[in-house]
Specification:
Bound molecules: 2'-monophosphoadenosine-5'-diphosphate
Shape: globular
Radius of gyration: 18 Å
Number of domains: 2
CATH superfamily of the largest domain: NAD(P)-binding Rossmann-like Domain
CATH architecture of the largest domain: 3-Layer(aba) Sandwich
CATH topology of the largest domain: Rossmann fold
Structural class: alpha/beta
Strand content: 15-25%
Helix content: 25-40%
CATH class of the largest domain: Alpha Beta
Order of helices and strands: EHEHEHEHEEHEHEHEEEHEHH
Length: about 280
Amino acid sequence: MDRYAVFGFPVSHSLSPKIHTQFALENKQVLTYEAIEAAPGAFEEALATFAASGGRGANVTVPHKAAAAALAQRCSPAVSLAGAANTLCWADGGWEAHNTDGLGLINDLKVLGWSLEGRRLALVGAGGAAAGVIAPLLAEGPEQLVILNRTEARAEELCDRFKNVSGASKLAAGGLNTRLTFDGVINATAASLSGERPPLPRSLWAPEAFAYDMMYGATATPFLQWAESCGIGARADGFGMLVEQAAEAFALWRGVRPSTEGVRGRLNPVAPTPNDNTP
Ligand code: ATR
């Protein structure tokens, strides 16, 4: 039987096995999907063992996304730009690397009904998570996409790296003490993992702005709690993005793009706030 797995460290909390098992059932695909914990340094060997025992595809999460991009025999343009991969496909005796995170985020924002075109957006964070979503966000035609980061030099480096992608004229860098205002703020930092939030000014919210956290959990993330305290009604965590990136990965592996509606309803640990206050 074809094997699929998510590799991470830690990985036991991952919802990916449940999501993909559900997709497989709904689409009559015969496969197994498991979570494999691989410590940094042991990832490459774990992946090789997996391939040798029937592994046909993998999802890759923290902290292996850069390593996955580096070890692949072929990389999609999105992976080459972001330097990070979240999906691997076994083909012709080697791994082919893709990054479906960006599409996952865009799909989720569409489901939420939050349009990006002509809007002023802030992307907070300048690590691999942020890098993976820049090109897809620019492709949606925002008025502005400002990368805000604690270490401003990293935000500037990212802008420089993406200077040749379509829509790059809309890209700018800044620090967390920005005086700009935004119609949408997307948190791509790792701050939630340590129970923190990026220290942004309350003045950054434009009226009717949305707040999106690429992290998710059973309770609202510190960033979303803060957004709520600022009076932001349109808030969502990254659960929907997780499901949507998974559907894109499933499509790459199996040639069938699953509907995400059932999985969104059944597995969501926290429902997003209703859409009635959305921009
Ligand atoms: P990932 O691949 O998950 O993006 P990363 O490359 O380590 O991980 O990047 C983590 C990001 O979260 C960075 O933008 C980091 O800011 P710095 O570049 O200044 O380190 C950001 N980050 C992590 N903890 C944070 C915190 N408590 N407040 C603000 N930003 C934080």
